[in-house]
Amino acid sequence: GLVTISGGSSNSGEGGFVSIVGGSSRWDSSGPISLGGGGDITLNTGSSSNNNSGRIDISTGSGENVVGDISISASMGAVPSEVNLMASGLVSIHGKSRVAMSSDGTLAINSESGDIALQSGTSSETSAGSIVMEAGSSAVSGGNVNVGAGHSSVGNGGNLLAAAGSGHSGGH
Fold it and tell me: Are 24 and 30 in contact (CB under 8 A)?
């Protein structure tokens, strides 16, 4: 049957609050929260006609040792599954030490009309981060790295600019 957990609605103030929390532990892992079943799982915030709609935050708790991971995955099946991250504005993926994206097929990063920026971190104390683009190896045929500027049927085509950074001993 259907189980609904709902915070109360409000005509003038903020809607009701719902919290589901796993138990904490001083010496071991905190208690898990499991949502499962044979059907869909939908996390959806409330709508608002006069103010901001709700927000969804998924975060792990802090720990003195290893901090928990967050995994969002679609299981393997006969038909390939998808994981989509979409927003009407910015989609930001930030790693304190590393961001890794990989694919057994095609890894596509698309923007309908805006820029796509790959930028490494800056540092005033140590070396800044690097951006590495490398094609895969194979016993049959290694992968290609293709970099190209956009075409235009009416205006100017895009430019392809590459420059080494300047420094005390110069970039290469």
Answer: yes
Give the span between the Cα atoms of 68 and 166, in whole angstroms: 40
Q: Find, among 46, 40, 62, 38, the residue nearest to 9 by Cα.
A: 46
**CB-CB neighbours of 109 under 10 Å:** 8
How far is the CA of 13 from the CAs of 16, 46, 90, 120, 155, in angstroms?
9, 13, 28, 42, 52
Question: How many Cβ atoms are within 10 Å of 100's Cβ, its own excluded?
Answer: 5
CB 8 within 8 A of CB 14: no
The DSSP secondary structure of 10-40, one letter per residue, reads: -SSSPPP-----PPP-SSSPPPP-----SS-
Q: Which two tokens stand for residue 66?
A: 């290893």
Residues sharing a CB contact under 8 Å with residue 47, sequence separation 6 or more, in sequence order? 53
| Residue in 127, 130, 125, 86 with CA at minimum distance from that of residue 109 | 86
- Written as six digits, the tokens of 62 are 């802090």
Counted residue by residue, the chain has a size of 172
Per-residue pLDDT tens for 87-140? 777 777 777 777 777 777 777 777 777 777 777 777 788 887 788 888 888 888
Q: What distance lies between CA 95 and its chain's CA centroid?
A: 10
Sequence-distant (≥ 6) Cβ neighbours of residue 138 within 8 angstroms: none
169 confidence band (pLDDT: 50, 70, 90): low
